[in-house]
């Protein structure tokens, strides 16, 4: 997938992302291919595991805090942002010859667990980087089903 480093089609560090936190991390908003926003350097994400959780830093240059939305639903934390651009052919001082700045929306989703609450996640935005602190959830012990063995005789 596009979000993980690869060399000669051999994905490196693939077992590093086996933690349930990274479930769905490889998915992008258009079915796996790198989105135009990510190709432009937006929403590039670093995830660091700490003793108590995960620090997630997401590059979102040019967005205002008000343009960014965080939503927690069904165990998925979705980060989305929208930036509107004028689509007029003329500016106040003349005609646009070239427009390269991104206008539109982009989003990323991270699986954080069904038991995560909005109040558990802390977010800040400074200098074009959205910083999230996501706690580790205590692993629920799996109860092994008991199997009865019939006694003959």
UniProtKB/TrEMBL annotation:
SUPFAM superfamilies: HSP20-like chaperones. Pfam families: HSP20. Residues 33-152 form the SHSP domain. InterPro entries: A-crystallin/Hsp20_dom, HSP20-like_chaperone, Small_HSP. Belongs to the small heat shock protein (HSP20) family. PANTHER family: HEAT-SHOCK PROTEIN 20 FAMILY MEMBER. This is Hsp20/alpha crystallin family protein. It comes from Bifidobacterium vespertilionis.
